Amino acid sequence: MRIASAISIADKPAILAAELTQQLQSQLQGAPVDVVVAFVTSRLVQEFSEVISTLQHQLFARTLLACTAESVLGVDREIEQAAAVSALAMSLPGITVKSFHLAEDEWADILRDNKALRTRLAPPTDLRLLAVLGDPFTTPVVQLLDACSEEFPAAPVVGGMASGITRPGQARLAINGNIYSSGLVGVGMAGPLQVDCVVSQGCRPVGHTMVITRAQQNVIEQLDGIPAIAAIGRMLEHLPRTDREMIEKVGLQIGRVIDERKGNFGRGDFLIRNILSLDRHQGHLTIGDMIHENQTVQFQVQDSHSADEDLRLLLQGELLLANAPTGVLMFTCNGRGTHLFGTPDHDISTVRSVLGSVPVAGFFCAGELGPVGGRNFIHGQTVSLALFR
User: Fold this and answer.
1) CA geometry: angle at 92 spanning 90 and 94, to 5°?
2) Are residues 108 and 163 in the same domain?
3) 212 and 131: one domain?
4) Residues 295-327: pLDDT tens digits?
5) Structural domain that includes position 284
6) SS3 243
7) pLDDT for position 259
8) Could you give the count of Cα atoms lying within 13 Å of 142 in the half-sphere of its Cβ?
9) What span, in angstroms and rounded, lies between the C-alpha atoms of 39 and 163?
10) Which of 18, 48, 60, 198 is surrounded by the fewest CB atoms within 10 Å?
11) What is the pLDDT of residues 65-105, one digit of tens each?
């Protein structure tokens, strides 16, 4: 297996494609290209077709997957809101690759029929990964991820939603020369391939775990038997001053435990969701997720330090389990980058500093896809990575 990454900044598609092709071919050293995953900033939306077609033909790529993005990252740089393209090219001997596009009018049939889902998305046996890129306006992503978690429990779904767009029809998605402005495109990979996923939600816990004792849909009414807002107040009273100051500055988020059977919960055990509103009159808390009674939750805080710490610790944990990967697909939130850290290149520099000079390509998403606790979810303010070994 050989994997190469490249990134290029230019206004002219011919120059972009030529630079990318030269960089990728130099690294691949003549190995055949089985899959190319490319990310094109929305400033090049008019040239999207030309860039994608040129890349596929010059690299003789058997499969090409691509989408438009607000910003891209690759090699060792993050290029924010400029005309640029990032790409990962993979030579995968012995790996079966199945490509697909799910159109807007197909969702109802596919999501209610597991056999149809499997037929459209997955090679016949030994599925190891689903890598997908979607249009955020026309993809029922939560339902799709739930269905994939049930039908393909051993194969994670990673990817992101196209960004840099403000209304339906603006996204561009490509699979093997076919270009779409809605739905979802992707590839299923099967065979002797190890893919490990890292999802860094960028938060650290504060206070202690609590149990939801009364709830309706996405409204938490009671925590540990008292009104939810009273529980927050009690927690804040016992926090260090520095934590209280940070919460005043950046606010709170909430994490719900994915697998209650574990008993002891730490990083990676919580699905982080936003707190949407506080009803101080009734003492209720509305969050961006459906919940139910007897679930365990813990409040979380996200700032640049927490986001950096979380990503580093998770990546370092990966190196304890296995050797450094051969290549990385990386999907980061368009709210990170200079918006969160104040300086460019933070997340990709962190990945390279921990994993070494591994080929990396990805983009800034309008929603990142990746597994937490063995199930697939869509996230925000997150980095989701697929590590190929």
Assistant:
1) 170
2) yes
3) no
4) 999 999 988 988 999 999 999 999 988 888 999
5) 204-301
6) helix
7) 87
8) 4
9) 10
10) 60
11) 999 999 999 999 999 989 999 999 999 999 999 999 999 99
